[in-house]
Give the backbone structure.
Amino acid sequence: MYAIIDLETTGGKYNQEGITEVAIYKFDGLHVVDQLISLVNPETPIQPFVEKLTGISDSMVRTAPKFHELAKRIIEITEGCVLVAHNAQFDYRILKLCYDRLGYTYERKTVCTVDLAKKLIPDQESYSLGKLVKSLGIPIHDRHRASGDALATLKLFQVLLEKDLEKGLFHSMTKGPEQSLVSDKQWALVQQIPDTHGVVVLLSKDEKAVYLFSDKNMYKATYQLFLSGDDHHKRVLKETKNIEAFPSGNSLMTQILHHVYLKTLKPKYNRRKKLWSDPSLIEVYQGMHGVWIAPGRTLGERAGIYMKNGMVCGYAYFDLNFQLNNPQIFEQLLTPIFPDPAFLVWIEAERPHLKWHSFEP
C-alpha cells in the first residue's frame, strides 16, 4: 500500500517552516482507496515568494484546520503505507518536523519518484515534476498546489511501477525511517551558510575536502544539494562531517575562487573539467598592469583582481578607502594565484561590471 503525498509550505528557514496545504492519495497499486486534501493553517506567515508560486495566501489559510487537527487523520491514512513523493526527503522531513512539535514520533518508509525516474527513465532533460510528467504525456493541473502535484506524482508513480516490473528497483530504493533524513548536525551546518555569492567546501571527519561547488546563493545551492537524490551527491553527503563557506562578493571572484580551491584542495568527488580559454584574449590584455575592481563581500569592501603582464596573478579584498596608487603596497595584500588564460575569459564576460585601475606609468 502506498501513500502518495505532496505538501505546500510557508518557506523560510530550516525547521521554521509550516504546512499550508496537504494532499494524500492512498493507492493500492491499482486504485485510489482513500484521500485527504486540505488547506492547513500554519500559524506562521507565508513567505511572499511562496504565495506568488502557489497562490496560497495568509487569508486563505486563516480559517483552515491547524496541523494538530489533521495529525490523527494523516497518521491513519498513511498507516502501513510507503510514503511516495517527488523529492520525498523534503516532504518526509516537514511531516516529521510538524509531528515533533506535537511531541509525536512519526516514522514511515519512503520512496522518491525522482530517484526512481533517474534509474528507470534515464537521460531526461529535467527531473522536475512539471517537466518530467510533460515529457511522459502526463497532464498536470493546479501546478504547485498539493492536490495537483500529488495527482501528477501518482500518475508518474504508476508509470514507474510498470517499468520496474522486472528490475525490482522499487524495493531496493525504499528507505527505512532512519535512512530518509540528512542528520540534524548536517542540517545545522547548512543553516550557517550565507545566501550570497561564494564557494562551499564539504569536509570529511579528518577535515579533508570531499566536494566543492560555487553559486550566487551558497545557502540555496547547498540546501538543494542536500535534498538531491543524485547517487553522486549521496556518496558526497555520506562522508560530509563539516562545511565551510567562502563568500566571494561577486560572480567573477566566485569563479576565480572555485578554480583556485579546486586546484589547491583537490576534493575527492569533484569531476575534473578542462577550462575553456580563448588564446586571442592574451593579445587583447597583453601588457596590462593594474587591478580590476569589483564589489566585495560586505558593504564598504572591494575585491581587486590583480593583472600583470596581461595575466591575472593574484587577488585581494580591501577597504573602500584604500588608496590604489602604489602597486608595491597593493602587492602586499595579494593572495597570489597561478596565471591561467581562463581568467581572461571570465574577465571579458564580466567586464561591463568591473572598474579598471591602471598601474602603468
The two ends are 78 Å apart (CA to CA). The first strand starts at residue 2 and ends at 9.
